[in-house]
Design goal:
Bound molecules: pyridoxine-5'-phosphate
Distance between the termini: 19 Å
Structural class: alpha/beta
Number of helices: 16
Shape: elongated
Number of domains: 2
Order of helices and strands: EHEHEEHHHEHHEHEHEHEHEHHEHEHH
CATH architecture of the largest domain: Alpha-Beta Barrel
Number of strands: 12
Largest sheet: 8 strands, parallel, barrel
CATH topology of the largest domain: TIM Barrel
CATH class of the largest domain: Alpha Beta
CATH superfamily of the largest domain: Aldolase class I
Radius of gyration: 25 Å
């Protein structure tokens, strides 16, 4: 990635989604025709930016952004470098926050503008040079901001990331005793009261946890949204068409597995899955397909008429080592972006817990997370209401990142 982002710890007055900012800077480099250049972006605080402002501009006050071009004539870089360096952009997050309040902008809007402004300075634009230079720079800023707005509004979700809770594991405990408690129907009500925006249940062929009775009762009692997870199996399709959940999610299902082990291979079963989508569509039931973050699977899902895809986050959650995790995360980011651009609505889930959910929740292409095991496991110790609220707090916090 050509953009290198550093964040001073003093800049922690506002949480930062470094991925989003890097993406913005890289997109700007491309838009300005310098995609083969790199840029260093540093987020800092008022104290540090004042120090730099005194040193380089003899101004003893904080400022919002400073740009330092790497070289005057940027063409004399050694030819064997993987990319050439445009320079440094330094932003005071503290000043950005103050200005966002002053100008009635969101922090996203303010930071977008500051990165654009800093980038144009690196490219030689200078609003302080003359009136015509000022006009030229402000026109370019406007043009880039408008392109960015079009790009973002084309497929970004509006509003907060939602949380749908899978209550299968409440039924698992009940089935272990073969009695009537704990009841997933009661659990679903508690989840909804705590702020969940949907309830997910997987009616498996072997009925190992959720039972037919649960499906019917939940259909009657759920106030938010019932998402029925299911394999493309004749008997279960029939039940779905009778019960009419608000959404079905098609998953691969193997009897031997402990839980869903991977995304559905849509590509090799387009006809079969397409036929299920047709039936559901005729009954006005939207279909989501649980897929690995693989562009070929996304395209196949879109071609056969899925409304949603749920990206399988299992690998990202389970992988060992920070580098591997970053790689899996990147695959999810790119898949979510690609799916959204194809017009698919994007959800994600599997393996998400209280430690790994925040980066996924911060992606504004993903509209809902489906989480089960971690919440039910925590609920055993601290209660279901509290466990749901704590997960929602993580999601809300992540949503507010830059
Ligand atoms: N999404 C799908 C498609 C699933 O099969 C499951 C597990 O039932 C989940 C999300 C939730 O996974 P977890 O229980 O690990 O949070």
């Amino acid at each position: 990635m050509p953009t290198d982002l550093a964040i001073h710890s003093q800049a922690a007055c506002y949480p930062v989604n470094s991925h989003r900012l890097k993406q913005l800077a890289n997109w700007l480099l491309d838009q300005c025709g310098v995609g083969d250049y790199g840029v260093s972006l540093l987020l800092t605080d008022d104290r540090e930016i004042t120090r730099l402002n005194v040193h380089y501009r003899a101004k003893n006050q904080p400022t919002n952004v400073l740009s330092f071009p790497f070289k005057e004539g940027a063409d004399d870089f050694p030819a064997d470098l993987p990319f050439k360096e445009l320079g440094d952009i330094i932003i005071s997050v503290e000043t950005a926050l103050r200005e966002s309040i002053e100008f009635g902008q969101s922090m996203h809007e303010r930071m977008n503008w500051l990165v654009i402004h800093g980038m144009l300075h690196l490219l030689g634009y200078d609003h302080e040079r003359s009136a015509s230079d000022e006009k030229e720079m402000f026109d370019k800023e406007k043009e880039l901001l408008s392109k960015l707005t079009t790009k973002l509004t084309a497929y970004r979700r509006r509003g907060m990331t939602k949380l749908a809770i899978n209550v299968d594991h409440v039924a698992t405990v009940r089935q272990a005793r073969g009695i009537t408690e704990p009841d997933p129907v009661s659990a679903a009500a508690i989840c909804e009261l705590a702020g969940a925006s949907g309830i997910v249940i997987h009616l498996r062929e072997d009925r190992r946890h959720i039972q037919d009775r649960d499906v019917h009762l939940l259909r009657q009692t759920i106030k938010t949204k019932l998402n029925l997870e299911m394999g493309a199996n004749k008997e279960i399709i029939k039940i779905a068409l009778e019960v009419k959940p608000d959404l079905i999610t098609l998953v691969p299902e193997k009897r031997q597995e402990l839980t869903t082990e991977g995304g559905l291979d849509v590509l090799s079963q387009k006809k079969k899955i397409g036929a299920v989508i047709e039936k559901m569509t005729a009954a006005s039931i939207p279909v989501s397909i649980f897929v690995d973050p693989d562009p070929k699977q996304l395209t196949a899902a879109q071609e056969i008429g899925a409304t949603f895809v749920e990206l399988h986050t299992g690998k990202y959650c389970d992988v060992i080592g920070e580098r591997n995790r970053e790689h899996e995360f990147q695959l999810l980011v790119e898949a979510a972006e690609a799916a959204a651009q194809m017009g698919l609505r994007v959800c994600a889930g599997h393996g998400l817990n209280y430690r790994n959910t925040a980066p996924i929740a911060a992606l504004d292409t993903i509209e809902e997370l489906s989480i089960g095991h971690a919440i039910i496991a925590r609920a055993v110790f601290i209660g279901l209401d509290q466990a749901v609220r704590e997960m929602l707090a993580i999601i809300r916090q992540a949503d507010c990142t830059l």
